[in-house]
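Batch manifest, entry 17 of 40.
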Amino acid sequence: MVSRIKFLYKFIFFVFLIFSFKLHSSNLIINGLSKLSLEDLQSLTSLDIEKKSFTDNEINKIIFDLYKSDLIYDIKLNKEENIFYLTIDENRLVENIYVNGNVRIEDKLIIENLSVKKNTFLNKDKINNDIDLIKNIYFSKGFNNVNVVVSSEKFSKDRVNLIYNINEGKISKIKRIKFIGNDTYSDKYLSSLINSRSLSFYNLFTSGSNLNTDNFYFDVNKLTSYYKSKGFFNIKVNYDISQSYLNSYILSFYIDEGERLKIDDIYFDDQNQVNDDFIRNTYEKFIKKLSKNNNFYDKSIIDQFLANLNENLIKNNNYNSVFQADILIQDGNNYLKVSEKKVKTEVINSISIYGNNITKDKTIRSKLNFQPGDYFNKSVIDISKKNLLSFKYINNLDIQKITNDGIVDIIVDIDENKKTGQIMAAGSFSGDVGAGLQLGIKDNNIFGSGNNLDTTFLINDENTRFNISLKHYPIVSSKISNQYTIFNTESDLKNSFGFESEEQGASYSLNFEYNENIDVSSGLSYKHSNRHSALKSTSAINDNIGKFDIYTIDLSLKYDSTNDFLYPTNGALNSMYIEYSPDGISDDNYFKVLLRSDLYRKFKNSDRFLFLSNDIGLAETSNNKLKTTYAYSLGGLNFKGFDYRGIGPKLDGIYLGGNRFFTSTVGIGGSFLFDDKDNISTKLFYTVGSLWDSDYTSQNDLNLRSSVGVSLDVLTEIGPISFSYAIPIEKNDQDTTREFNFTIGTSF
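Output type: structure tokens
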């Protein structure tokens, strides 16, 4: 029995020697193979792995060759007494990819950016690169201490699940923002131009001070554009971040202003072109704009000038030329040379669109100013790009041109905002209508059509309102749109007008965006109003009680050149709104006009600004009396220092409103004690005005009211917060005053 066992051991050893001889030469042994053969390995390397001896360099060459193949995941090398042992870890396919531990960033955003994909072989280098990629994604969002560990679990014999385990850590904050090299503008002023914010008590819990690299690139562009608009032709701006302590960083902007360039003269290569009426008029407008800037170089003005010239070429079917401008320096003078450059005639063959996972192709194509068969012109491409970027649901895009013997294929690559829809919940508190809640669903690109849907439910101390509004672009144009709205409102007006009411109705409006500043809108509306539960019996109340069918026609004009929607500091906002309810068609008859004019002027090289605001309202009726329902009211947020509906005629404790009113407010605003103007603004103001002429009282004298005060506006993550303290200077005995006023959250 013992001899048999010894024989068996000798036989196994003999077989092992034979098998080993097949897998290695005298000083190379390869282990770990299951699916691959020696011949498979031989096909992957340029060296003969069956020769008798190898040097260190030759072994390294074999390993290098094997690593280039997707068939090998890992190789371990050991050397003992001049024998090389290679342990091969054969590759597996990726079945699934999972992400764990991520809270701030969605799985989809991470996975779609990974270089390792499903149904591909594992790749060690790609996985390591993906770890760095994930860290960079988090770093761009303000997380600088992210840890990523990759593991795998067996799915089947040849497949594994790949798992990225993420520890996000704490978000990093900007402790301080520095500007180096800014001789012309102060740190404080440049801070007001950028999005990034340094950490302070009022933005401690907001995203403004997060270490967000996306913001940094945007800030560099904003600073560069601003300097170029002020004549700094060769401006260079870079940024750097350095750790202060723990999760706190210092953001530094390095600015090389260069010399400020002033344009001494402007001329065309072909001066005969100036005889053209359009070119001459465009040229003269350009000269005026440039002179307002003291003839300093302004890239935005020049770009617009060239765009206008090139658009005219296209209108005249000239696709063979394009206008361009160059700065020439001769004899110490700076000249702007405008040239019409001939370009090679090329025909567009095809247009391919990529990246639009939500938006329909036809929606994108409707904004393109070219189609197959047209002559190619770069200006047309630029115009189309501008048109597409007018869509709020497109973040960015790239339009590429592929040319072959005069034939052009266009590729439009869309960076689409995946989240065009929004579910909103907002609270508010104001001195006017008290506490409120607003819920809503919005989508700026419903079903990829480019149309807007807005559903809103709101409730406050006076009103409960529900409405659905659809903004439809019939030709997917950013210029013309139709808006359809249906609504239902329940109001408790006992404390002010002496009754309750319910209203249901619908409206339609045709909107025209003439340009980026001018909007025109006209519409029709119908509402059924049921006013009841009168608090007492007076003529002012009784005339409003009952059921009414009301039809109105409205017209609005708006000019808006302000630099910010929430907190403007420069520009103008002028508007007119007309509302008419015709007699014979509508149960109520009235005509109302509301005029508004806001003017803002920013101090040079400062974040402070002057503002002047004027409002005028007129109302008339062909009947004897204008019902209090349609009269104007004054006080509260529209006249600080006085209570909501605290100004104007009253009768037996019932607010009457007025057929006439005006207010005028003048003041100065800016950061003052605060460096961060975009988050917080302080205003000093003086307001004068009055409301009068009610059809329900003979006390209709024009008595001026006035107040002086200060306000503090803060933009937070929960919405705008505004505080004001105003002292009435002139008032009537029947007026009610309120010195302190504030709003929290979204106002509605």
